[in-house]
């Protein structure tokens, strides 16, 4: 069943990559068995890097805070397991960059945490004050779990300069292959609604919209059914939006639901909007009601290269290798392991890379998916067809920016608003000349940020 | 002499006057054309260099005089710094004219690559399939195990206008015969591997590694990485180990017996000679590879 939203709730631009979600969409969230070792990155968020609160050889308890920072834009990190700190070392991560990580060896017979959240019958969000909620969110180390990793407390905290009116809950999950948010919406519906109410109370928003793509009718139904049965859900409305990539981008979702534009280079609070991912609101409920820190998250391990794909409740810090091993290992024709989905994810070469708070999926692709196009990997000159301009959801000129970066003209790239790009890869996806536009734009952004990794010896 | 006489004289002499005039002007035109056609082209840089020199014609540089030294230095930039009376100031002016880099003591700088890992020496986890430039590859971690070493996509080669750089088995390799010392490669390297050092001698001793990782990590990643063992530092004070990496002060480098011993004793063979007639780098000892 498809809910008709023809021409109503969407944005201009975008594209339609194959969804490939059926691999895992029917697999329930399973708890992950006891892990042997975790590596907790001390910077799993946008903002200041945490300083470690423990030392080599110390024993840490599950849920113990092991890193914190005094900076406003930051979030503490916690140990998901009981174990002994093996070392504090530098760890590279494709998305988070290079930062220190606390490596913890699990103590034997330590039972894994299960996703057994039960909403109390007498739950009332009004029994918590806004400060209480914000404080609990900060202490639990909650960050945006959709991928950007912005500390949630900073987002929901009332700010007199930028008053918030509307709360948008992002349940789009437009990225192909990934189904973690979909399963959360189906299985943890009440937890999400409790989290929405808490976030609404903390931020002082009057209106709440839950945007869900119309290729997930079951999730829309489940959310609507749960809202109908629970009290005090008047202002919360589920909005089915058109299935289109990148509908889950926060600017695109705001455009689709509220018909408003976020100013270029600006953030949603400038127009009084807060956008939270469904996974984030679910952990808000857990953190506020049970004082439980963010130590586990749902990760979709998927792709044609995985023997038994599925959705798992995984301790943060688990290595990708361990995830893959639990899912039956890699099949033979694997060529790429990607952190995230195939559009925005980054391929990794080192399988010891740990799962972070922002890691929603591990996608393993075989040669068939990568090399399906006849000329895949063969870059030819730009033919000025303009398809990248058509699909760009931010209305940029990707080919102009990419060529500027290629020729080392960073000022030109900046004049064409390179920093407004959110790296959704629509342009690279449609380019008939196979130009890696997003790759060049990403490179240019990094160069502009002035990151030169090492200095001469 | 009255007016009539002058008139009479003019009557008789005007053909001769006109003839002389015509001859004169035709020669002038011929000379003009000849001077343009048969002009000997002189590189304006020679004149500029000559202007920068002290005009003493002392011969201390080993050439007949200032003008012949100016011509020589344009062809062979390494002759910079031979002008004794001018000193470093003159050398600086010449380097500016030739857009070259020189050290404080007036020695021409040339690039060296602080890495010697070829494809077989370094370990990689996977195959990089992204944009084939070092700048793009450097944005991602784990393109290869070593975060400091040469990526081998050749950004430096594209920057070199003199075809003096090439990627040999995944390592940027400098042809010092062709290198002019302009420094473009050094600016192009996103990992800052290429350093401009003063070539006080024809062949310079260098530490061909930039890895600041601990010795154990470096050893696991690369067969020819500096493990910071400090053996070189024990031989001579010219070497010191900082951040798990041996360093050599190139400004003060002097080839001695001790530096030679350091080169021979280096277990991973990261101390090598580079230059026009540099001997081939030795292979790391068996012990270092197996460890």
Biggest β-sheet of chain B: count, sense, barrel?
2 strands, antiparallel
- The CATH level-2 architecture of the domain at 125-290 in chain A is identified as 3-Layer(aba) Sandwich
Mean pLDDT of chain A: 87
Main β-sheet, spatial strand arrangement of chain B:
1-4
Helix count of chain A, per DSSP?
Answer: 14
C-alpha-based Rg of chain B, rounded: 30 Å
- Runs of chain A in which pLDDT lies below 50 for 5 or more consecutive residues are 1-5, 451-457
Biggest sheet details of chain A: 6 strands, mixed
Structural class of chain A: alpha/beta
Reading the helices and strands of chain B in chain order gives: HHHHEHHEEHEEHHEEHEH
Which strand-content bin applies to the residues of chain A?
Answer: 15-25%
CATH architecture level-2 label of the largest domain in chain B: 2-Layer Sandwich
How would you describe this structure in keywords?
heterodimer, A: 457 residues, alpha/beta, Rossmann fold, 4-stranded antiparallel β-sheet, B: 291 residues, alpha+beta, 3-methyladenine DNA Glycosylase II, Chain A, domain 3, Alpha-Beta Plaits, 2 domains, 8 strands, 12% strand, elongated
Overview of the molecule:
The complex is a heterodimer of chains A (457) and B (291). By secondary structure, chain A is of the alpha/beta class. Among the domains of chain A are: 125-290, NADH-ubiquinone oxidoreductase 51kDa subunit (Rossmann fold, 3-Layer(aba) Sandwich), CATH 3.40.50.11540; 379-454, no CATH class. Chain A is 26% helix and 20% strand. Chain A is built from 14 helices and 17 strands. Chain A has a 6-stranded mixed β-sheet with strand order 1-14-13-17-15-16. Chain A has a 4-stranded antiparallel β-sheet with strand order 2-8-7-4, with no helix packed on it. A 4-stranded parallel β-sheet of chain A has the order 11-10-9-12, sandwiched between helices. Chain B has helices at 3-37, 44-52, 66-75, 87-97, 134-139, 155-159, 184-188, 215-221, 231-235, 257-265, 286-290; strands spanning 109-113, 165-168, 171-174, 194-198, 203-207, 239-242, 245-248, 271-275. Chain B contains 11 helices and 8 strands. Chain B has 2 domains: 44-97, 3-methyladenine DNA Glycosylase II, Chain A, domain 3 (Orthogonal Bundle); 109-290, Alpha-Beta Plaits, CATH 3.30.70.20. A two-stranded antiparallel sheet of chain B has the order 1-4. A two-stranded antiparallel ribbon of chain B has the order 2-3. Chain B has a two-stranded antiparallel sheet with strand order 5-8. Chain B has 291 residues and is an alpha+beta fold. The mean pLDDT of chain B is 86. Chain B is 37% helix and 12% strand. At the A-B interface, strand 16 and helix 14 of A face helix 5 of B.
């Amino acid at each position: 069943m498809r809910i008709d939203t023809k021409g109503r709730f969407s944005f201009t631009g975008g594209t339609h990559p194959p969804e490939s979600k059926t691999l895992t969409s029917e697999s329930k969230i399973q708890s992950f068995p006891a892990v042997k070792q975790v590596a907790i990155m001390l910077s799993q968020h946008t903002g200041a890097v945490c300083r470690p609160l423990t030392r080599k050889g110390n024993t840490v308890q599950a849920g113990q805070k092991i890193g914190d920072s005094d900076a406003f834009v930051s979030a503490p990190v916690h140990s998901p397991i009981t174990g002994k700190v093996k070392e504090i070392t530098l760890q590279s991560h494709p998305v988070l960059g290079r930062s220190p990580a606390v490596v913890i060896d699990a103590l034997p017979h330590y039972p894994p945490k299960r996703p057994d959240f039960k909403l109390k019958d007498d739950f009332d969000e009004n029994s918590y004050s806004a400060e209480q909620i914000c404080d609990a969110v900060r202490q639990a180390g909650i960050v945006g779990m959709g991928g950007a990793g912005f500390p949630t407390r900073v987002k929901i905290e009332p700010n007199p300069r930028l008053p918030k009116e509307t709360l948008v809950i992002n349940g789009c999950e437009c990225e192909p292959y990934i189904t973690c948010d979909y399963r959360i919406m189906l299985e943890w519906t009440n937890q999400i609604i409790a989290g929405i109410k808490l976030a609404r109370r903390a931020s002082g928003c009057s209106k709440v919209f839950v945007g869900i793509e119309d290729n997930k009718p079951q999730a829309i139904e489940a959310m609507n059914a749960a809202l109908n049965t629970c009290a005090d859900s008047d202002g919360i409305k589920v909005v089915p939006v058109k299935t289109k990539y990148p509908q889950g981008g926060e600017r695109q979702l705001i455009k689709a639901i509220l018909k408003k534009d976020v100013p270029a280079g600006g953030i949603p609070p400038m127009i009084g909007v807060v956008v939270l991912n469904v996974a984030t609101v679910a952990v808000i409920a857990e953190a506020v009601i049970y004082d439980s820190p963010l130590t586990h998250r749902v990760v979709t391990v998927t792709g044609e290269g995985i023997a038994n794909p599925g959705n798992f409740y995984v301790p943060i810090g688990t290595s990708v290798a361990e995830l893959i091993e639990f899912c039956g290992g890699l099949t033979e024709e694997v060529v790429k392991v990607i952190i995230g989905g195939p559009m925005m994810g980054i391929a990794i070469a080192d399988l010891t890379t740990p799962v972070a708070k922002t890691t929603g999926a591990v996608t393993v692709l075989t040669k068939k998916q990568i090399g399906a196009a006849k000329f895949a990997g063969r870059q030819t000159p730009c033919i000025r067809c303009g398809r990248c301009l058509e699909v760009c959801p931010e209305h940029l000129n990707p080919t102009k920016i990419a060529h500027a970066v290629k020729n080392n003209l960073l000022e030109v790239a900046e004049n064409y608003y390179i920093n407004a790009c959110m790296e959704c890869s629509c342009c690279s996806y449609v380019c008939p000349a196979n130009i890696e536009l997003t790759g060049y734009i990403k490179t240019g952004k990094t160069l502009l940020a002035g990151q030169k990794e090492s200095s001469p010896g | 002499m009255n007016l009539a006489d002058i008139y009479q004289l003019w009557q008789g002499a005007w053909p001769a006057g006109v003839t002389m005039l015509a001859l004169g002007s035709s020669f002038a035109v011929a000379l003009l054309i000849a001077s343009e056609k048969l002009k000997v082209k002189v590189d304006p840089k020679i004149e500029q260099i000559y202007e920068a020199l002290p005009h003493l014609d002392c011969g201390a540089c080993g050439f007949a005089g200032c003008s012949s030294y100016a011509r020589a230095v344009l062809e062979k930039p390494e002759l910079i710094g031979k002008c004794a009376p001018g000193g470093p100031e003159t050398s600086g002016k010449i380097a500016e004219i030739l857009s070259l880099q020189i050290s404080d003591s007036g020695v021409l700088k040339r690039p060296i690559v602080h890495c010697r890992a070829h494809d077989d020496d370094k370990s990689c986890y996977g195959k990089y399939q992204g944009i084939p430039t070092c700048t793009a590859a450097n944005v991602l971690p784990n393109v290869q195990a070593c975060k400091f070493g040469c990526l081998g996509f050749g950004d430096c080669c594209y920057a070199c206008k003199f075809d003096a750089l090439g990627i040999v088995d995944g390592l940027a390799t400098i042809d010092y015969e062709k290198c002019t010392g302009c420094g473009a490669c050094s600016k192009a390297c996103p990992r800052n591997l290429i350093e401009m050092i003063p070539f006080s001698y024809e062949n310079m001793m260098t530490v061909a590694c930039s890895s600041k990782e601990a010795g154990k990590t470096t050893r696991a990643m690369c067969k020819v990485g500096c493990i910071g063992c400090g053996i070189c530092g024990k031989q001579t004070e010219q070497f010191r180990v900082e951040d798990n990496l041996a360093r050599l002060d190139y400004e003060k480098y002097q080839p001695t017996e001790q530096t030679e011993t350091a080169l021979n004793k280096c277990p991973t063979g990261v101390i090598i000679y580079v230059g026009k007639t540099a001997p081939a780098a030795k292979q790391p000892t068996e012990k270092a590879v197996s460890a």
